[in-house]
Design a protein that fits this description.
The complex is a heterodimer of chains A (237) and B (195). Chain A is of the alpha+beta class. Chain A is built from seven helices and five strands, in the order ααααααβββαββ. In chain A, a hairpin with a 4-residue loop joins strand 4 and strand 5. The chains are: A alpha+beta (237), B mainly alpha (195). Chains A and B meet through helix 1 and helix 2 of A and helix 3, helix 4 and helix 10 of B.
């Protein structure tokens, strides 16, 4: 036995060093996988929010927002995209620490994490979980609510080809009365295909032409708020 | 003790959990190899190498229950040795002896492999390169140095290096190619400067 071997065994005996119990390693392993699962779940929630932002934002009306205010519409999707990048990197770091995780290329782990997040995120959005999350965050995180308000404020700076307002009266032959964000009352002419679905209290976004005496002829319309997959008409925050 | 010499490493690990002489056998099997590896990699004085090696075997003993039987014991031992050496180097940068310790046989292995690629001109003699291996390896970035040592001096397979460094096999292959390329570039530069 060499001098080094003797010293090693002496130290083991002197300091009463014992092998760590197996359950500790099993617990560590299980914890790692649990953390990985959690990070994927988090990624799914974030992806759900990204999908919600893309779906609910009226991109087709965005060209009518004046100046740089239109860039505000990109704020929330970008923040969520950055969050997804962070969470995905976290998922990769955790997975690479598992027993066999290092054998896989980073690109593969990242790609699989993102695909799972997208699939689960789409499901979360379809089940309206992302709308629920948005409501909860707006109610409990003041900075989030403030940011939402700022983004929403982009729609206060639209050009003359656009009108946003709440329906206060339903007339005949496609005529409705709307109060816009500036408190002005407008008579709006709508084509029959849009008219059928409207109710008093709906907030509408319309593109068209302004006429004389506070009239507006709408060519395209959508309800402001959640788009397809979001809360149905009548549901409000 | 004789009985233990015929047992595989994995079997010894299992026995070491109950009998210390099984662990003794593992220490004696790997002591010289790991000692040489630390010296080749870190260029430390013998006492420092022994200190690191002691910590390595203590760590191996403490973590015997975490040994993955899908892995070779040697890969696991090298992995812990590699990590402990890196930690030691980072903590004790001032005490590091820069000169990398290799013997002529180690250098010959590395040069033989490189020369077999036909990239190094014949006019650079094996003898010239042997004396330069120390210097060239030391000038390489740490990740290139470690991979060349593992591949050409420790004779590790790609899968073993992957297990030791905890990197995918594709990354190991890429690193080896890049390390070889940079080694050759430095060797040729050295040769031009001395002419």
């Amino acid at each position: 036995m060499s001098k080094l071997s003797k010293n090693i065994l002496k130290k083991i005996e002197a300091e009463n060093i014992k092998p760590r119990p197996k359950w500790q390693f099993i617990a560590m392993h299980v914890s790692l996988f649990a953390l990985f699962g959690l990070s994927i779940l988090l990624g799914s929630m974030v992806t759900g929010m990204i999908i919600r932002e893309i779906v609910m934002t009226a991109w087709e009306f965005a060209p009518h927002i004046k100046g740089v205010s239109s860039l505000l519409l990109l704020v929330m999707p970008l923040i969520w995209a950055a969050s997804l990048a962070l969470v995905t990197c976290l998922a990769y770091k955790i997975f690479s620490k598992t027993k066999k995780g290092y054998k896989y290329k980073p690109t593969r782990i990242l790609a699989i994490s993102i695909v799972i997040s997208i699939l689960l995120g789409a499901g979360a959005h379809y089940l309206q979980f992302s709308s629920f999350m948005d409501n909860v965050m707006s109610d409990h995180i003041p900075s989030y609510a403030g940011l939402r308000e700022k983004v929403e404020g982009a729609w206060d700076h639209t050009d003359e080809k656009m009108m946003m307002g709440e329906v206060i009266e339903l007339g005949e032959e496609g005529l409705i009365t709307v109060v816009n964000r500036q408190g002005e009352t407008w008579s709006v002419v709508l084509s029959p295909e849009y008219f059928e679905d409207i109710e008093i209290g709906d907030e509408l976004m319309m593109r068209g032409e302004r006429g004389e005496d506070q009239t507006f002829t709408a060519e395209k319309m959508r309800e402001h708020g959640p788009g397809p997959g979001g809360p149905q008409k009548g549901e409000r925050k | 003790m004789n009985r233990l010499r015929t047992k595989s490493d994995a079997k010894l690990v299992k026995l070491a959990l109950k009998k210390q002489d099984a662990f003794e056998e593992l220490v004696s099997r790997y002591e010289k190899r790991l000692f040489r590896y630390i010296r080749r990699f870190a260029g430390l004085q013998d006492q420092c190498v022994e200190d690191i090696l002691q910590e390595v075997f203590i760590k191996l003993y403490r973590n015997l229950n975490s040994f993955d039987t899908d892995l070779k014991f040697s890969s696991w031992a090298y992995r812990i040795t590699h990590n402990e050496t890196i930690s030691y180097i980072r903590k004790n940068k001032r005490n590091q002896n820069i000169s990398l310790e290799t013997d002529d046989e180690d250098a010959a292995n590395l040069i033989d492999f490189l020369k077999s690629e036909d990239d190094i001109p014949e006019e650079i003699s094996k003898k010239e390169l042997q004396s330069e291996v120390h210097e060239i390896l030391n000038r390489l970035p740490e990740n290139y140095k470690e991979i060349l040592i593992l591949r050409f001096m420790e004779d590790m397979e790609y899968s073993e290096i992957s297990d030791i460094l905890k990197k995918p096999m594709g990354t190991v292959a890429t690193l080896i190619n890049r390390a070889k390329a940079q080694f050759k570039t430095l060797a040729l530069k050295n040769h031009e400067q001395t002419q």
